[in-house]
Write a structure and sequence with these properties.
Length: 212
């Protein structure tokens, strides 16, 4: 997965050292909406390199987060031009923290739209802050989809527990994905812990291994 991203996509790895023997790195991958967004979830995931399930999804189609995910914004907004799935998005927000109570999360993905200011930053596990405009293919878009961000824990990294956005300008988010290294057995390729998005995925023939 990681080498595939590195081969195909722009990426920025950031490193930080805590003590002489402890090195952690997370990889950030940014995918411009122009080349990845598709109304078919199957195609979108293929474009993002996320064919391999299972995945956990928050689609922001209502006010409730999936079990194990908390954030400090409570509003969702109907906006078809910035939604990456359904008709609603999370936000708008300038700063937002996602607390991940789901165990073993090794990949975090989120769609970003309406990021007019273009100054947004992301902080992983309260450690390292990255200005997203440093990433190749970063785009700033008004009232439309901008990019999809995937953060991957590399082999020696701790699980992903918090993701914080800061210094943003009333951005929208959507299609938040969590991927675990040791997911629970399931016959579905996408797990919605509260089963709230089941209809969305039934319409798309389950995500992961079905040809579109
Ligand atoms: Ca929701
Ligand atoms: Ca949505």
């Amino acid at each position: 997965m990681i080498s595939k991203y590195a081969m195909r996509l722009s990426s920025l790895s950031f490193l930080f050292i805590s003590g002489a023997l402890s090195v952690s790195a997370y990889e950030l991958h940014l995918f411009p909406a122009e080349s990845t967004y598709n109304p078919s979830i199957n195609v979108l995931h293929r474009n993002l390199g996320l064919e391999e399930g299972p995945l956990i999804l928050e689609d922001f189609e209502d006010q409730d987060m999936i079990q194990g995910l908390k954030t400090n914004f409570s509003e969702t907004e109907k906006n078809r031009s910035t939604a990456w799935d359904g008709t609603r998005v999370g936000g708008p927000f300038d700063d937002a923290e996602f607390e991940i109570g789901v165990k073993n999360v090794r990949l975090f993905g989120i769609a970003i739209a309406d990021n007019d200011g273009g100054q947004e930053q992301v902080t992983v596990n309260q450690t390292k802050t990255v200005h997203l405009q440093q990433l190749p293919f970063f785009t700033s878009r008004s009232a439309s989809r901008a990019y999809y961000l995937i953060i991957v824990a590399t082999e020696d990294d701790p699980d992903i527990r918090t993701i914080r956005f800061s210094n943003a300008f009333s951005i929208h988010c959507d299609h938040l994905i969590l991927k675990q290294v040791n997911p629970q057995p399931t016959d579905k390729h996408v797990i919605n812990l509260r089963d709230k998005s089941k209809s969305l995925f039934e319409k798309t023939n389950h995500i992961g291994n079905q040809p579109n």
